[in-house]
Amino acid sequence: MSLTQLEVSLLRNLSEVALTPGAAINLLHGANGSGKTSLLEAIHLLGVGRSFRTLKARRLVQDDQAAAVVFGRTQAGHALGVQKSATGETVVRVNGRSGVTLAELAQQLPVQLFDPESLSILAGPSQPRRQLLDWGVFHVEHAFQALWLRAQRALQQRNSLLKTAKIHDLEMHVWEDELAVASESLHGQREAFMARWLPFLDDAFARLLPDIALRVEYHPGWDLSQPLMEQLRLQRERDRERGFTQMGHHRADLRIRCQGAAVDERLSRGQLKLAACALKLSLVQCLQQAGRTQPVLLLDDLPSELDVDSRRKVCSWVGELGVQAFLTCIEPVQLTGMWGSRPVRMFHVEQGRVSLADE
What we know:
CATH topology of the largest domain: Rossmann fold
Strand order of the largest sheet: 7-11-12-3-13-14
Mean pLDDT: 94
Strand content: 15-25%
Radius of gyration: 22 Å
Number of strands: 14
Largest sheet: 6 strands, mixed
Structural class: alpha/beta
Shape: globular
CATH superfamily of the largest domain: P-loop containing nucleotide triphosphate hydrolases
Helix content: 40-55%
Number of domains: 2
Number of helices: 10
Distance between the termini: 25 Å
C-alpha cells in the first residue's frame, strides 16, 4: 500500500512538487518553514481526505488560488486524487472515479501520523484515544464503518430530541433503543480488538520504556453491569438538563496510567513521546500481524525531545516493521544510520521545493 508517486500543487508553500518516494524510509530534511510538514500533510490528505493541521481549507490553498490538489499512485497501481477548494469543498477520486467516500480512500492508503500533537493521546479529552482505537477496528472489521454511522445517527437524533420543548416518549424510545443496540455492537468490536492489540502494546511499552510500568484500560462509555437502554432512560432527564447524551459509544476511552496516576503527571516530555510512539507503532504492528493492512507512517519532527538512544530505538523499530515511512528533521544526521539494512531515500526541502539528496 506504499506510495510510488506523489504530486502536490498549490498546497501551502508547495507550488508544484513531484517526487518518487522510496518503498522504505524517506527522510525529508530542511529548515523550519521549508515545507517538510506540508508534504506530510499532502500524504495525509491522500489517505484521510483532511488535514491534520487545520479544519479551514482556505489555509491549505495558496493565496489567490482556487484549489490545492494532491495526486498519488500506490504500489498496487491505484491513482488517488484529492482536491481542496478555498471555499471548503473536497473532491476525492480513486482511479478517476469521483463520488468516493473517505472510508474508501482510507482503505486504499492507510496512514498513521505521529506529530507533536500526538502527545494529546496520553492526556486530555478522550476523542483522540477513541479515534486511534477505532482506526484499528476499522481496518479489521469490515462492518465497523456502517455500524459507527448508525450509532452516530441515533446519537444525533437523541441529542436533537433532548433540546425540544416536549419530548415524545415513543420517538425517544425508538432512538434510545437504536443507540443502545449500535453502541453495544460497537463495544463488542472494540473489546475484541483490544484483546488482540494489548499484547503488542505491552511489548511496545517494555521496548521503549523498560523501566516504567504503564497500564492501559479500555472503558466502553457506560456501566456494563446494566443494559445501556435502561441507563439511557434513567439518565434522560439529566441529559436533557445538559442538552446532550452522556453515555454511549461516543464516551469510550483508553485510560493510560502510570503508578496509579495520569501519565502526564509521572512522565517527562521525552518519555511521553516514547509512550505515544509505543501506542501508534504497536497498533501498526498489530494490524500487520492480522494480515489486514500495511499502513504508511508519517513522523513529523521525531528528533525533538528525544535523545540519541531513544531516537535509535524508535527508528530501529520502524525499520523492522517494513512499512513505508516519511520522517521530517532539520539536519539529516539526526536520523541517519539508525535503520539497519533498510534503504533510505533522502529529500532536501527548501522554500517549497523538493530535491533528491544523497544519504
